[in-house]
Amino acid sequence: MQTFIMLMALGIVVLDIALVVCIIALFNAKWRGIIRSFANEYGLLAIFLLSAGSIAGTLLMQYAALLAPCVLCWWQRIFMYPIALIALIALVKGKKISDIADYVIAFSILGGAISLYQHLLQILPSGSLIPCDATGDCAIRLVFEFGFVTIPWMALTVFAALALIAFLARKETTV
Hints:
mainly alpha, 5 helices, globular
């Protein structure tokens, strides 16, 4: 199971690098057009695969690695799981990513905020932030790969990727 967690952490590092490269590329008009076009074409599938992969990862960590989720982990799941369902329904019904982009962004921002808070609980010195509950289970670091990848960091990275893809493929509205 340690190998599986290491592979997940490695995948997150690759996704982190891809996000940084993508964000930097958005400052170039030519690349921005290419990235937006890619998001419109393949974004819905990417959102489904990332969120479904996250569901599989959380369930494997819970039931195969026997890592019990804390309160904040449950809240992150509350915001991640519907994204996979919404994306699956949109794929089945032949909808465009722009039809669900606002929902993905909303769920991703809320879930990402919780993930960031929990990651800071696990990284910063004890007592730096208000603890999440009386037992402090959320501050216990069960995974720590490459000196920064924790379970909440994995969730934060996926939420950030989902939000970015959805934002790039959003309908442009004129007022």
